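Hi V.,

You were right to ask for the full record rather than a summary. Here it is.
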Amino acid sequence: MDDDSTSRLVRYAYALKDLDISKSRWGCQITDNGLYQLSTAKCIINLSSISLWGMTGITDKGVIQLISRANSLQHLNIGGTFITDESVFAIANSCPHLKSVVLWGCRHVTENGLAVLVNKCPKLMTINVWGMRVPFDFFLTLLTIRPALQIVPQSILNMGNIPLLPVF
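Predicted structure:
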């Protein structure tokens, strides 16, 4: 699956709610051009879930283009990519219904991006931060912003002897 074949499929999926084009699915190799093509599909505004896990061929440019039209998004997996705070700012500004986000291994996302995301997404309940370059103490700061936020992996917070709420 490449940019053209994936966008062609999505363009004809009018009632699509969940889009998983992770690298592990179908052997997808999407680039920014593919994300731009996907952003023009009518179903994008109704998507509740998008997974772009492991898509190393995408950058902030493509992610911002796609996310700017995905206003109904509740779940986003963008782990294993090379996005930066620029994408996270776009997610925070475009996705007011976001409940969970996977930023696993997004080593170019900083504390600033995470703080904006947690502040601007009032429904955010779970965030996966495994493999990021963010200091442990900053996760405590995120919990002061949103005490019920589930930070995954939980072992990060268990090191600080902080009681955890169950993940549903």
